[in-house]
Amino acid sequence: MYSYEVTATPDFSEEPPLTKSGSFAGASRRQCHGAPRLASQKHREAVRRQRDEELARDRLYEANCRKVGGKPVTIQTNGGPELVCRSQTGGIVEA
Fold it and tell me: N or C: which end of the chain has fewer CB within 10 A?
């Protein structure tokens, strides 16, 4: 068991310092050895979740593009590939 005490002292106030204390159990050897695996798993889940959100956003954009009579296409820009909505006359439509 580890104990701690933290004191915050305001710089520009008449308030007294605020002190908090407590305790917590340290990590076990098993938890320490499993931490890299757990961190890797959480990272993979975050990447998967971000990818799924991007795909859902793209699908919604494509559906909206079709609703206004456009065709979703990917173009190459200086910033990399970008999904845009091409109108029937060849211009770009805000979808």
Answer: N
User: What's the angle, vertex CA 76, arms to CA 45 and CA 51, rounded to 5?
Assistant: 10
pTM of this structure: 0.60
Q: Which pair of tokens denotes residue 10?
A: 């305001």
DSSP 36-85: HHHHHHHHHHHHHHHHHHHHHHHHHHHHHHHHTT-EEEEEEETTEEEEEE
pLDDT in tens, the chain (95 residues): 899 999 999 888 788 889 999 999 999 999 999 999 999 999 999 999 999 999 999 999 999 999 999 999 999 999 999 999 999 888 998 87
